[in-house]
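Limitations
The structure tokens in this dataset are predictions for the assembled complex, not deposited experimental models. Users should treat interface geometry with appropriate caution, especially where small molecules or nucleic acid strands are included. An illustrative entry is reproduced here so readers can see what is and is not provided.
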Amino acid sequence: MAQTGTTGDKVFRTVLFITAAIIVVIMAAMIFMMVWNSLPTIKTFGLNFLIGREWKPAESVFGALPFIYGTIVSSVIALIISVPLSLGIAIFLVEQAPKKIATPIAFMVELLAAIPSVVYGLWGIFVLAPFVRDYLGVFLEKYLGWLPLFQGRLTGIGMLTGGIILALMITPIITAVVRDILEVVPTQQREAALALGATKWETTQIVLGNAASGIAGAVILGLGRALGETMAVTMVIGNSPQISASLFEPAYTIASVLAANFAEATDELYLSALIEIGLVLFLVTFVVNAFAKLLVSRVGKRMHA
Amino acid sequence: MTTITAACAVFAIAVLLIILSYIAVRGLSSISLQFLIDTPKPVGEGGGIGNAILGSVMMTLLACVIGLPIGIGAGVYLAEFGENLFGKTVRFLADTLIGVPSIIIGIFIYTLIVLPMGRQSGLAGGLALAIIMIPIVARTTEEMIRLVPNSMREGALALGAPQWRVTWNIVLPAASTGIATGAMLAIARISGETAPLLFTALNSRFYNYFYDQPMASLTVQIFNYATGPFDVEHKMAWAATLILITLILAINILVRFLTRKRF
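Predicted assembly:
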């Protein structure tokens, strides 16, 4: 066996190296193929592609602004709902609930993340959208109807429903990361605060303050997920390329325009336009995720140091 | 304050239970054996998801055959030899790839496989799923292998075993349960993926046993039924969802059970 050692080691290590290198090749190929295939529209429209408000494939007019707008607004709605909710759950699980209750609850929240996007979409169409149309939307119109946000025709299918579905989908993700971060905050910090006479809630506030940058990372990670979520949003947001102040109106996100139109895009410029907005989404999620990772890992390191 | 945070937790669990109970009630009322075997038929003539189930199984299988060896290999590399610039780069790219929206993976495979081949295929769908799987499996494998105590490696090395024997015969078996659970979670994840299949595998109305043809899948079928105009279609969407969600929850609960026993 000893003789086979050096050759065996070399072969083994080379095989493993190749498998690891495949990940690098996939990423490189992905970036190359997307840039290459979006060159026709990059050359034709340049930056106007990103700021154009008209999207008329039949006339070869491609402006991606409605999709960028829809993606940002739906993700912001998702964050507004999901951040307090996730923080509440994470604080409850780590700081307040006894372990016996916390473990099964944590598992059930994790299960929310296991439900596929298309299933959220199905539920969204037949349960959430009617609820928004008949109850939530009516309520918002009645009490906040003076805001342009909550005016217009209320069908249940639109930006608001899309944002709510996204919120439900990113809540387990933000919760999980915040939980991990709160768990690495040393117990001594809590003990010290309590010993100084702080109440339990004041102690939690101190813990949150110390974990702030990591929590920000968790939120940004959730944002990254919301930006790229496809199926559920496609099914409830209404798929209409318009920029409207009303959250009741249908909208379009980058991911949903891809899902709804890619298979039908036959002419070269149309396909190129779709791939270019895909590229935009790819680059944005890349930056957002990298930034979030940086924030989260810094907290881990600081707490252990 | 505890009341508010507890209410948040209760709300999340309520959402989970509401979603699951809708699937259970609506799904159970329209499921039948015939539904599980039949192919889609024109509205009003019944029809089922037999070919979609077969397509999902075939594409998931292909994704596993490609994705598991590469993912596990990369994970072992990262854990055992990954403390250099290359290892750090791979780790960073794997994390990035996990964060890439799955529809982008669909576009990538479309430009790489579908355009040159001239048609959508089960091969393209399976490859897209494999790409989603690889980084997930790689990172969980790495974590699981790092949990194997160094004393085991040192013990084997001290007995004169070469490095590859140590990894292959000592470290991998010790981490096998962990790696298997990681693989199972990855399978659960890809079996729910829709977006990367929409324009790679497309869909098919027939039983299709060949990877070079467009292939139906459970998730794309759910999407089509859910967005269709007829009530019969919606019923079939719920029934198909019941099958999908049962599988995914079963995997998640099994993994939970396996990991609790071990760690």
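Some entries come with short summary sentences. For this one: The mean pLDDT of chain B is 93.
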